[in-house]
C-alpha cells in the first residue's frame, strides 16, 4: 500500500497520455461518483491528455460525443433497482477488445465495479494493458439497508477480487486505505477529492431563497444535502432537528436532494422544505443560504458535500469518518461525533443551534480549512500516478515497447 504522494516520481518531460475511462455513472447524472469522474476527465483533458469514456447510455436521446481529444463509447444501460435515474452498463468485452486492439490506450481506468467495469478489466488483462480502479462506494455496507444483508459478505468478496486484479485502487482517504488494507486489498493509492471554492462561496447567500424556505431575517436554516436513500441515515437528521427546534422554534429543516426514500421522508417530515435535486450555482446558493449543516451518514467513502458545505462557510456537524474525519478539526473547523453515537450527534446539533458565535467561528475556519484542497492538485497527483503505473508496466516481461516510448526516463 502506498499512501505517500512523494513516492510518485516526477518525470523531466511530461508525455501526452491516452486514457480509457470506464464508469457506470457520469454527468449530467447527479451523485458524488459522477461528479468526481467528471472532474477527473476534465482535469486530464485540460492537461493535454486524450480520454476515451466508456459508459452506459443514459436515455434514448443520449448520443456519444467526440472531439479531437475526447471520444465516448456507450453501452446498454439497465436501471439499478431502488436508484431511479442510475444505470449499470452491460458488458462490452467484444467491442472493447476490438477497439483497444486497434487503438490501444496507454492505461485503462475503471471507476465502477459493475458488469461493464468487470468486462473492461478482463479485456485490459487480455491485451496486457495497465489497468487501475477506484473504490467509490461501500456497496457491501448498503446491503443491510435494502433487506439483503445476507449478501454483504459475497459483495465484499467480489469487490476485493475485482480491485485486486488492477495495478492500483484509488481510495479517497487514508482511513479507507487502512481499512481496506486490513481486509486484504492490495496496491491502494490515496487520491483525495477537491472542492471548487469559487463556486461554493459564502457570497452566494440569498435572502430571497431564505424567504422561499419560510424563514424570517433571523431564522435558522438547518441544511442537509444528500441522496434520499436508506443508507444515508437521514432519520438521525430529523432527530437532531427536533432537538434544535426545541431551542429554536424559528428553525427550518431544508433537505436538498432526491431519491427512493423521498416519499416516506415527506410523510414523516411534513414541515421540512424539500428542495429536490440542485446543481451548479443553484446548489451553491442553497449551501450559502444555510446556517448550519448536518451530515449523519455512516456509509460514505468520502462525502463531497462535506467539502462543499465547508467551502460555503457552513459549520458542519458529521460523524468522525470519511472526509469529515480527515478534514474537520473538532471544535476548530466543525463538530464531530463518535461514529454511531446518536446522543453525541444530537447534543452537538443543539450546541450549534444555541451558539451563534460558535457557528460563525466554525464556518469561517471551515472556509479556510479547505483552501488547500484544490482540484488542480488532485489532477496533478492523478497524472503522476498514471505515469508511474504506465512506466512500471512497461518494464514487465512481455509488454509492448510503445509504453517505454510514451513515458521516457
Q: Gist?
A:
By secondary structure, this protein is of the alpha/beta class.
Strand content: 15-25%
Helix content: 40-55%
Give me the secondary-structure category.
alpha/beta
Poorly predicted regions are: 1-12, 139-150, 400-409
CATH H-level superfamily of the largest domain:
Glycogen Phosphorylase B
CATH arch. level architecture of the largest domain: 3-Layer(aba) Sandwich
Strand order of the largest sheet: 3-2-1-6-7-8-9
Oligomer: single chain
Our measurement of the CA-to-CA distance between the termini, rounded to an integer number of angstroms, reads 24 Å
CATH class of the largest domain: Alpha Beta
Give me the CATH fold name of the largest domain. Rossmann fold
Q: Using the alpha-carbon principal axes, give the shape.
A: elongated
Number of helices: 16
Largest sheet: 7 strands, parallel
User: How many separate domains make up the residues?
Assistant: 2
Count the E strands: 15
Mean pLDDT: 88
CA-atom Rg in angstroms: 22 Å
Amino acid at each position: 500500500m502506498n499512501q505517500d504522494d512523494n513516492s510518485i516520481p516526477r518525470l523531466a518531460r511530461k508525455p501526452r497520455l491516452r486514457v480509457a475511462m470506464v464508469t457506470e455513472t457520469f454527468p449530467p447524472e447527479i451523485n458524488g461518483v459522477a461528479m468526481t469522474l467528471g472532474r477527473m476527465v476534465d482535469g486530464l483533458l485540460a492537461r493535454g491528455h486524450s480520454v476515451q469514456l466508456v459508459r452506459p447510455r443514459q436515455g434514448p436521446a443520449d448520443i456519444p460525443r467526440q472531439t479531437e481529444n475526447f471520444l465516448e463509447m456507450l453501452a446498454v444501460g439497465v436501471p439499478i433497482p431502488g436508484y431511479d435515474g442510475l444505470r449499470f452498463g452491460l458488458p462490452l468485452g467484444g467491442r472493447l477488445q476490438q477497439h483497444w486492439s486497434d487503438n490501444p490506450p496507454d492505461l485503462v481506468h475503471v471507476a465502477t465495479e459493475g458488469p461493464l467495469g468487470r468486462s473492461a478489466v478482463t479485456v485490459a488483462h487480455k491485451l496486457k494493458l495497465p489497468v487501475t480502479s477506484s473504490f467509490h462506494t461501500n456497496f457491501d455496507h448498503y446491503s443491510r439497508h435494502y433487506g439483503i444483508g445476507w449478501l454483504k459478505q459475497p459483495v465484499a468478496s467480489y469487490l476485493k477480487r475485482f480491485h485486486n486484479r488492477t495495478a492500483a485502487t484509488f481510495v479517497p482517504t487514508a482511513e479507507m486505505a487502512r481499512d481496506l488494507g486490513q481486509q486484504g486489498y492490495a496496491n491502494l493509492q490515496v487520491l483525495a477529492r477537491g472542492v471548487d471554492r469559487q463556486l461554493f462561496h459564502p457570497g452566494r447567500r440569498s435572502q430571497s431563497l431564505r424567504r422561499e424556505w419560510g424563514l424570517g431575517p433571523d431564522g435558522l436554516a438547518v441544511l442537509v444535502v444528500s441522496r434520499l436513500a436508506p443508507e444515508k441515515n437521514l432519520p438521525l437528521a430529523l432527530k437532531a432537528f427536533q432537538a434544535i427546534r426545541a431551542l429554536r422554534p424559528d428553525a427550518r429543516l431544508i433537505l436538498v436532494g432526491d431519491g427512493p426514500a423521498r416519499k416516506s421522508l415527506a410523510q414523516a417530515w411534513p414541515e421540512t422544505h424539500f428542495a429536490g435535486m440542485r446543481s451548479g450555482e443553484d446548489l451553491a446558493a442553497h449551501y450559502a443560504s444555510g446556517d448550519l449543516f448536518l451530515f449523519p451518514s455512516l456509509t460514505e467513502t468520502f462525502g463531497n458535500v462535506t467539502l462543499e458545505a465547508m467551502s460555503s462557510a457552513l459549520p458542519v456537524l458529521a460523524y468522525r469518518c470519511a472526509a469529515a474525519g480527515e478534514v474537520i478539526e473538532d471544535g476548530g473547523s466543525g463538530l464531530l461525533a463518535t461514529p454511531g453515537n446518536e446522543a453525541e450527534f444530537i447534543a452537538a446539533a443543539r450546541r450549534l443551534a444555541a451558539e451563534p458565535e460558535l457557528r460563525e467561528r466554525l464556518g469561517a475556519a471551515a472556509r479556510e480549512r479547505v483552501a488547500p484542497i484544490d482540484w488542480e492538485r488532485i489532477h496533478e497527483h492523478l497524472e503522476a500516478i498514471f505515469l508511474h503505473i504506465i512506466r512500471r508496466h512497461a518494464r514487465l516481461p512481455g509488454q509492448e515497447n510503445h509504453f517505454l516510448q510514451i513515458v521516457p526516463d
